[in-house]
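Components:
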Amino acid sequence: MMLKFINYSNGYHIASFAKNEVIFNKMRTDGYSCFTVQNYKLIFFPEGWAVDLLEEENQALKEVEDYSIFEFNNGSAYVYYNAASVDNALFITNKCNSNCIMCPTSDIVRKNSGIEDINNLLKICSQMPSDASHITITGGEPFLIKKDIFILFKYLKDNLNEIDYLLLTNGRALSDREYASIFKETIPSKLIVGIPLHGYNPDTHDGITRAKGSFNQTMSGLKNILDSGTMIEIRIVVSRLNIGFIDKIADLIIKELKGIYIVRFIGLEMLGNARINLEEVWIDYKESFELIKESIKKLVMHGFNVGIYNYPLCCVDRSYWALCEKSITDYKIRYLEECDECSKKDACGGMFSGTFRLMKGKINAIK
Amino acid sequence: MIVPFNFKQFGNEILLTNDFGRYIFLKKHEFEQLLNKQIDKDSKLYKCLEENYFVFDTSVEEFIYSSKQELRSGKSYLFAATSLHIFVVTNFCNAECVYCQAQSGNIHTCKMMSEEIAKRAVDIALQSPQKELTFEFQGGEPLSNFEIIKYIIDYSKTKKANKKIQYSIVSNLTLLTEEMMMFFKENNVSVSTSLDGNCDLHNINRPLAKGRTSYEIVKEKMKLLNDNDINIGAIQTTTKKSLDYSQQIIDEYLESGLTDIFIRPLTPLGHALDRWENIGYTPQEFLVFYEKCLRYILDKNKEGIWIREGHANIFLSKIINGCGINYMELRSPCGAAVGQMAYYYDGNIFTCDEGRMLYEMGDDSFKIGDVMNSSYDTLMDSKLCKTVCKYSIIEDIPQCCDCVYQPYCGTCPVINYALDNDVINRRRRSYRCQIYKGMLDIIFGLLKEEEYLQIMRRWVQ
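Structure:
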């Protein structure tokens, strides 16, 4: 969430928001960088800045909860940590060392991105409530911050160990034994690491990531942490590119990755590269499910936990519904007109704002 | 939509419970309205039913999605591997308790667990994928084989890697020495003993083979343990004699500085069964006693004295918090093998403490393996493990499945088998069933009294 503050001109700054004076005082005693609203002014502690607010800016702030953390830049602020949300992110960078054909982030965004400074990340973490429900640590590729990531992990482990974390990475960095071993020592207890597998061998996987050697690196990264009790989530992004060999990926998992926590099948979000390569990438959720359901069954029969993400219920056989999860972030969820007629709409996770139009005419209301 | 529930007449109301462990009392006309879907959706009653998962207005799938966490926490023990490992380090005992279930045997046999067997037992226990383990030392009187206890603790500490082990010992304390106490203190070993009541009662129930009386000794040693900051707890066993002493028993606990008491009925096995005429009682007699105890305990709490009763506490955790306690015989499936394992001094492994008691009476039906040939995986994979699990899922067992107390209860395949030669209890209203049902009747009755409800809430907070 981005908010405008036209008159703010003090440059990059991190501060927690307090709606009223009681909370503001509490934050001050706790040594937080914080700000509140008094008489149409933003008041910052400890800097003492006072910034004039416009009426609409004041209104927008009324929607924000105490303890939300803002990243200010001149003229605006990004709500980095939203206290009202059950899922927040620690965002490391948009850069990536792979270049997947179906990446929802575009080339330009990835190329122009910087890497978050570890001190900013630590500052944000130091003001994050210890009862936050879920934090996704994500990129781009988070390991591009290099060994600083372990400083972050260690901080979370020492200070915010009760939170559920999901780390999204391509796992290539973990093929380095030193990285893998520091990783195992520093991660917080309830961290799940989500790693995508796009193919079942170097050809099929690297063909999609367009990064030579990535399959071998990801596989050895997985094996390096498999024995440590780390919870691993294998993510299979199902597209036209790999629909032909999903079953072989399932076989690979069954044969080589016993002990992982869950396999998640992930429906496409058609943004960025995915949108540009639409012809090559897009497969609608219904067709896609039909072609993966036997592989899902096979994994379940072999004792694997399986989850299905981003597939509307009407595209999935009823007997698989228990595996479907409401996975799309609230502000991105869209439904089509037909959905209003559906008796299962409340149980369905809906579709991505950038994708749902592609499903026009393909979905049916369940009566 | 109405969610499946169990129910029964409770006084002039109807008690309903569901799989989430939630309960509600309804008047007869409200019950009829519920069944006929006539309750006004804006009414307080409807909101209350909705909050407690008895009705919902969403799609079935959304209801499942939104309630699954609740179901999960009620069955949280299913996400744990075997955590309680019982080491029966000897069958020797220097006491002759009238109700002994552990042996109906000969006190002159004196068999001790060897180092070799202890080592292998620990190796198997550590194969359990569970991170937090409890190692419990039992006997006979385990202190008669203190060397092996020491060995097991020292050895397991060198082998445990990242596991956390809580050690505890179940002892009559008669053999406790200064050296043992220091060792327990150093290694954070908690001690559980038996205290059956006041002096007369305790000595009658728990006579010693010779020398001083067991009451005298247990009181003295408990004080010593207390003075040394060693965590000490006690459990009580009820005999026919105890029935008249409800208040004295609880007063005895309070005087001893204990804030938890576990009022337990006899298990009709071993000596207890042989002597049932002299020491046993009907379930009704026990329940009258239990209610007297519980009311007395609650009244003490009213006066500002903190003391809790163990059975009530286990039930209330599920009734009030929806949180399933990993108490082996009040969970479904029961904890045999998947929750606990008993390693006998001779190297045989049993599904549970009760399983080895049966072995001591000459029946090895619940022997699941032995330390020489088994691994944790083969134990878990065994037919016996599957049998005890399958036949203790009370959601599935005739009679139990329809019982209003099903969400809180459990069954014990070993005792069923010992009494009736069948792992499933097929008798209507067996001894155990009557006792647990009766306890829950008493507890739900007390929950209707606001003042008691507040106290019981505090117990499980």
